């Protein structure tokens, strides 16, 4: 029996597990301190009333013989897939029902999609980057190239003709930097991928936060993207489904490599390894896309946007460089007075009792930077901003 020794190449623990251990140890040693957690990207507002009502109704159906449902379609119920189609259609993007695959979240699909690609493929990821992109490919033993995202390029790397990659990860708005690509910039990536026969894995988990005109919310806004891209999206941040678990992946029919449809490969993978998202959750997700649901989730999103504005205004007043905040729930700041982002983490925890995420946990280019999120309560966000002002105005 042989193990997959690629796992031994990973860091001993996941970034956020390390943060949790540090924070828990500090809290245990200082029970009198009020810790404000602005690190992990978990939402704090409840599900929209329309979603809760839909789920309650669906739960009631499951208790009646005539409306009870067992196994559902692995790729999602048509009622939800058509609701998602309508969401894209409202933005001028046409999708077919069988191009949409409902899942238990974008994180799962971003890792699981690799099942349909050979280990020999070379992967290109931005640095800094969401750790799952890197770790899942390390687990598979793939060669990984990095596209440098730095202050110099606004944390939005563009194609490098000297980098020959088969699989390209793009996250926009980006986690952790909050930077977002325009449709024109994405068009360059699409041209690059089509020229090489590469596939773009586009993570649109934060598309609902895009506020500025000209910035893309979907890679399918770009002509030709359906021939080279797969898009992942999640209701976790859009509608507060972090604990409910529902997302979706779009694999266009037009995406073919070596004469093989990637849509059909993904369907085969899902029908073999995934039993689908629960009927109750999918009814709740369907309600997100109703007129009532969209209005209600916008109220929640507005709270997170205000939180981001509060943090941004604080950093502006302190003269601290940052990106994000406007088109993203993340604020990516340069550590004031620290070159080591873990030392800054410790300093902020000890001196202000505020928790964030060290930039180095997202890659080498994250060293010296730090991520704060806008997902805390408005009260906690305001208090954190005041603590930062006091700490860095000394």
Automatic annotation (TrEMBL):
Its EC number is 2.6.1.83. GO terms for molecular function: L,L-diaminopimelate aminotransferase activity; pyridoxal phosphate binding. Pyridoxal 5'-phosphate binds at residues 71, 106-107, 130, 175, 206, 234-236, 245, 275. It catalyses: (2S,6S)-2,6-diaminopimelate + 2-oxoglutarate = (S)-2,3,4,5-tetrahydrodipicolinate + L-glutamate + H2O + H(+). It holds the Pfam family Aminotran_1_2. Pathway: Amino-acid biosynthesis; L-lysine biosynthesis via DAP pathway; LL-2,6-diaminopimelate from (S)-tetrahydrodipicolinate (aminotransferase route): step 1/1. The modification N6-(pyridoxal phosphate)lysine is found at residue 237. Involved in the synthesis of meso-diaminopimelate (m-DAP or DL-DAP), required for both lysine and peptidoglycan biosynthesis. Catalyzes the direct conversion of tetrahydrodipicolinate to LL-diaminopimelate. This is LL-diaminopimelate aminotransferase.
């Amino acid at each position: 029996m042989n193990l997959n020794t690629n796992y031994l190449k990973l860091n001993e623990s996941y970034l956020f597990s390390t943060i949790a251990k540090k924070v828990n140890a500090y809290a245990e040693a200082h029970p009198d301190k009020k810790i404000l957690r602005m690190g992990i990207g978990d939402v704090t507002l409840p599900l929209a009333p329309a979603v809760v009502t839909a789920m309650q109704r669906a739960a009631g159906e499951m208790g009646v013989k005539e409306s009870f449902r067992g196994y559902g379609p692995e790729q999602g119920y048509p009622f939800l897939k058509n609701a998602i189609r309508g969401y894209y259609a409202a933005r001028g993007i046409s999708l077919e029902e069988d191009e949409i695959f409902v899942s238990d979240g974008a994180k799962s699909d971003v890792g699981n999609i690799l099942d349909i690609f050979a280990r020999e493929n070379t992967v290109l990821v931005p640095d800094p980057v969401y750790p799952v992109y890197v770790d899942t490919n390390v687990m598979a033993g793939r060669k990984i190239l990095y596209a440098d995202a730095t202050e110099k390029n606004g944390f939005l790397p563009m194609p490098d003709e000297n980098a020959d990659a088969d699989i390209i990860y793009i996250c926009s708005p980006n986690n952790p930097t909050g930077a977002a690509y325009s449709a024109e910039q994405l068009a360059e990536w699409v041209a690059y991928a089509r020229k090489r026969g590469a596939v773009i894995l586009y993570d649109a988990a934060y598309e609902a936060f895009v506020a500025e005109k000209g910035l893309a919310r979907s890679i399918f806004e770009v002509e030709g993207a359906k021939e080279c891209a797969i898009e992942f999206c999640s209701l976790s941040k859009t509608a507060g489904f972090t604990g409910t678990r529902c997302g979706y992946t779009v694999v266009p029919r037009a995406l073919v490599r070596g004469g093989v449809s990637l849509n059909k490969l993904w369907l085969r993978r899902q029908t073999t390894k995934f039993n689908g998202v629960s009927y109750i959750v999918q009814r709740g997700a369907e309600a997100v896309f109703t007129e009532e649901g969209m209005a209600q989730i916008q109220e929640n999103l507005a709270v997170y946007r205000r939180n981001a504005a509060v943090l941004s205004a604080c950093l502006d007043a302190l003269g601290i460089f940052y990106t994000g905040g406007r088109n993203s729930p993340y604020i990516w700041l340069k550590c004031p007075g620290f070159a080591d982002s873990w030392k800054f983490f410790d300093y902020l925890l000890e001196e202000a009792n505020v928790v964030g995420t060290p930039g180095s946990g997202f890659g080498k280019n994250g060293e010296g930077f730090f991520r704060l999120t806008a997902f805390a309560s408005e009260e906690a966000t305001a208090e954190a901003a005041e603590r930062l002002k006091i700490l860095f105005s000394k």
